[in-house]
Amino acid sequence: MNSEMISFLSFTNREVSRLLRVWKQTIVPPIITSLLYILIFGYSLGSKITSIGGVSYLEYIFPGLIMMGVISSSYSNTSSSLYISKFQGNIQEVLVAPMSYMSIIIALATGSLVRSTLVAIGTLIIGSLFAGLSIVNIAVIIYFLVASILLFAFAGILTGLWAESFDQMSVFATFVVTPLTYLGGVFYSIDMLPPFFRTISLLNPIYYIVDGFRYGFFGTTTSPLWISALVVFILTVFFFGTCVVLFKRGYRIRT
Amino acid sequence: MPTPAIHIKDLHKNYAELKAVKGISFDIKQGEFFALLGQNGAGKSTTINILTGLSNKTSGTVKIFNSDVSQNYQSARKRIGLVPQEFNMDKFEIVEKFLDFNAGYFGIAKEQRKIRITHVLKELGLENKRHSKILMLSGGMKRRLLIARALLHDPDILILDEPTAGVDVESRRSIWETMQRFNKAGKTILLTTHYIEEAEELADRVAIIHHGKIIKIDTKQNIMQQFGKDLVTLHFKSKISKVPSEIMGQKPTLGSDKSSLQFIFDHQKFKQKDLLQTITKSKAESFEISKAKLEDIFVELTKGESKK
Q1: Chain B residue at shortest CA distance from A85
Q2: What is the mean pLDDT of chain B?
């Protein structure tokens, strides 16, 4: 194994070890949140809605709930890991090491991949106790899962780089990620919206993530699958490229 | 001529309006123990940060064993072990795991990592702290752990930024011994400190940095020779009624006991043998010489330099 690979695996190991050390903060909360959504929206309110697209309301919202947990876990994993490393100063350990910027970015994102996958599996297990689960296309499910985790891992890295205070850390999550997630069609189909709001929803990238991911479970989409797949791919590549450029420049990590 | 371990040429670093480093140039030879002295804010840490990749330079050339720190940063960083001024560690981590991760960042294979961790923990007297949380270590132990981390990949250059700041005497001695052992093994050391006696005790060559400029760079002996002024005290049997003519030229002052004379011996103006002759001719009963300290020279050199 070459030294670059050893460096990458060591940093990945540290990231995974960090998130598993505090598993009660990193893995459990999004699963409990999803469970509460299932109970509140699925069981109580959901019983008033007959079906959407031929499936029960609880089944309909379930892929979106998985994605909500995945997105927030992925984003908060990289953003908080990087910000706390800056805050404690231990980001310097990797900055003085002979490790490429690419390895640092991918190792951070791999931490998100592990955390979000555990959250997705946990939510899937809990959810399957309450809702019948069908899988139409596993490849589509894996594509949207991995691409979304990476997309929000890179977005988290950008926030972690940019943030210089805990306040700034929460700004992007509160004012961008959370509203986009709730308005991304997790709890409803955009076909149910008036034309104006339907058009607005098409500008929300999370809509494409949820719509494409849902296809893997039910085989139906609101927008063409290839458009959703392309939007997620382009955004992931764009965020990754921005991370590489900023890391090379040492944006807010090098003085 | 062998490749210098560190080559710095016309290095500038600006932080917005502030010019932290103003065109410094110097080389550090392989195997040399080099001390960079300066007050807080003089530009010592900025220079070190540029060498190790923690700061981007504004302009100039910085090379580590001929590898440019910007263009060829991976080769350059492999050769350096950094002991930073701040405790930049994940305090909740276990010592062994912390060292294992860090050795991994430098590309050391798993089997080799165990051997290196045992070696550096022994070297720094931290064997019995292997399974402790970093949080539980004392300040001196944390400082030694930072050195252990820097030595993990057996670097050719050890850069220490104020390594003994705030540590007790025992830890300071232990840190000094580690630096000396490392240097004796042929490795290069760059030490920044504002404890002048530390540089006086350890370094071969000294550079004094002041307001971002190198104002003096030379071997410790040459600096002492050039700027050192020893205080000579001559003791006589009885009270002095008349200053002996042999030492009139030295402008002596009478001691409070009235039976001793003191004068400053300037190495720049006189030779050592002249001093001995003067003492012999003065017929003093005994004499003592207080050697000049690097600290006095440092104060002398920096007080005249205005902030430009």
Answers
A1: B90
A2: 89
Please tell me whether the overall predicted TM-score, pTM, comes out greater than 0.90 for this model.
Answer: no
Q: 3-state secondary structure string, B236-278?
A: CCCCCCCCCHHHHHHCCEECCCCCEEEEEEECCCCCHHHHHHH
Enumerate chain B positions whose Cβ falls within 8 A of a Cβ in A. Answer: 15, 46, 49, 52-56, 73-75, 77-78, 80, 82, 84, 86-92, 97, 100-109, 149
B229-291 shares the fold of B1-79+157-163+186-228+293-308: no
Residue B107 and residue A98: Cβ atoms within 8 Å?
yes
**Structure confidence by residue, pLDDT tens digits, B148-158:** 999 999 999 99
Q: pLDDT tens-digit profile of A143-181?
A: 999 999 999 999 999 999 999 998 998 888 899 889 998
Domain B1-79+157-163+186-228+293-308 belongs to what architecture?
3-Layer(aba) Sandwich (3.40)
Answer for the pair B178, B124: CB distance below 8 angstroms, yes or no.
yes
Average of pLDDT values for B213-228? 82
The band of B118, judged by pLDDT with boundaries at 50, 70 and 90, is: very high
Please state, as a whole number, how many other Cβ atoms lie within 10 Å of the Cβ of residue A41. 17
In a domain, A228, yes or no: yes
A254 within domain boundaries: no
In chain B, where the domains are located: 1-79+157-163+186-228+293-308, 229-291
Q: What percent of chain A has pLDDT over 90?
A: 71
User: Residue A164 falls within a domain, yes or no?
Assistant: yes
Tell me if the domain spanning B229-291 has CATH number 3.30.2450. no
Question: Which residues constitute the domain of residue A85?
Answer: 3-249
Contact flag B86-A89 (C-beta cutoff 8 Å) = yes
Could you tell me the pLDDT band of residue B308, with boundaries at 50, 70 and 90?
Answer: very low
SS3 per residue for chain B: CCCCCEEEEEEEEEECCEEEEEEEEEEECCCCEEEEECCCCCCHHHHHHHHHCCCCCCEEEEEECCEECCCCHHHHHHCEEEECCCCCCCCCCEHHHHHHHHHHHCCCCHHHHHHHHHHHHHHCCCHHHCCCEHHHCCHHHHHHHHHHHHHCCCCCEEEEECCCCCCCHHHHHHHHHHHHHHHHCCCEEEEEECCHHHHHHHCCEEEEEECCEEEEEEEHHHHHHHHCEEEEEEECCCCCCCCCHHHHHHCCEECCCCCEEEEEEECCCCCHHHHHHHHHHHCCCEEEEECCCHHHHHHHHHHCCCCC
pLDDT of residue A48: 77
CA triplet B29, B33, B38: central angle to 5 degrees? Answer: 105
Pairing relationship of beta strands B205-210 and B33-37 according to DSSP bridges:
parallel
What domain count does chain A have? 1
Cβ–Cβ gap B104/A99 under 8 Å? no
Highest mean pLDDT out of A44-53, A57-66, B230-239:
A57-66
Are B73 and B242 in contact by the 8 Å Cβ rule? The answer is: no
